[in-house]
Structure formats: C-alpha cells, structure tokens
Write a structure and sequence with these properties.
The structure is a single chain. The protein is mainly α. Helix 4 (93-103) packs across helix 6. The radius of gyration is 24 Å and the shape is elongated. Mean pLDDT is 92; it is low at 156-160. The protein is built from seven helices and three strands, in the order βαβαβααααα.
C-alpha cells in the first residue's frame, strides 16, 4: 500500500521507480488528495486499486484480496515462462533453426531445401523440438514461439 503523498519521493514516482527496476509487486494507492488524472496514471502504471480516504474497511480488504490474486497469477505466469525458457535452452542450434521455419509456416520439404538437409532430418528435428518444448500441436508450438519472442522468418519467396 502506498500513499500518493509519501515524504520525499511521492507514491506515483515510487511506483515508476519500481517499474524501472522491474520489481513486480501489486500496489494499492490510498490518498486523501486524489484526483481523476492521478488515479488514471496510477492504474495505467499497474496499480491494483486507487482508494480515496475515507474508505470502507471492505474496500481495502477487497483491494488486498485482488492484489494477492493478481500477484499469485503473475508469479505463476513468470514461473511457467522461466520453465519454458529452460526447455528452449535444451534445443540444439539446428533444432532452433528448424523451429523458426516451422513456426513461420514452411513445409518440411521447403525447410529441407533452405537448410540443405534431407526432409527426414527436418522431421527428426521437428519431432525433437515438439518433444523438448512439450508442444502438443503446431498451433501450440507457434504460441510457445510467441511467448519466447522467437521471430518468424520472412515468408516471401517461399518455393512450393
């Protein structure tokens, strides 16, 4: 919980400093001197709630409950992403290259021609990628690539 008017560094500035430092904690603002632009700024920056004094006890309890739930969800997502990155690190360079072609929509035959390897070898690498990343389908692999921030290859000039 932060008051907008903290001594020294104000609550909104403190929130900004936390964000710069990539410290993800749920923030509930309380203030006796709030206005709409201030509350909008706080909420856009990720505050869970912006309460103006006096507030009901139930309002603060609801805000804390929401903050804890959002924090739990964020930590769960962060953990899942960390595990996904760890699985991605187990891929060989060749498997990563094949993955880029696959998620870019290239067929095995096209990938083989571009990489100058056999289609069977592409299939083996593709199978390994799917297993190592625990991808159940091609759309699942594309979703994983998006989460990992893997850029797609340019589709222009693909041969059939």
């Amino acid at each position: 919980m932060l008051d907008v008017r903290l001594p020294g560094l104000g609550g909104l500035d403190f929130q900004a400093e936390l964000a710069k430092s990539q410290i993800k904690i749920p923030i509930i603002f309380v203030t006796a001197h709030g206005d709409v632009p201030m509350s909008v700024k706080a909420m856009k920056a990720g505050a869970v709630e912006f309460l103006i004094k006096p507030f009901r006890e139930q309002d603060i309890l609801d805000a804390v409950r929401l903050a804890l739930e959002r924090d739990r969800l964020q930590r769960s997502q962060d953990q899942a992403q960390h595990e996904l990155k760890a699985r991605f690190e187990t891929l060989t360079d060749r498997e990563r290259e094949v993955m880029k072609y696959v998620v870019s929509g290239f067929l095995n035959k096209q990938t083989a021609a571009r990489m100058r390897i056999s289609e069977i070898t592409v299939k083996v690498h593709r199978h390994n990628v799917m297993n190592k990343l625990d991808a159940k389908s091609l759309p699942d692999l594309v979703r994983i690539a998006d989460i990992l921030g893997i850029s797609r290859l340019e589709a222009a000039g693909r041969e059939s």
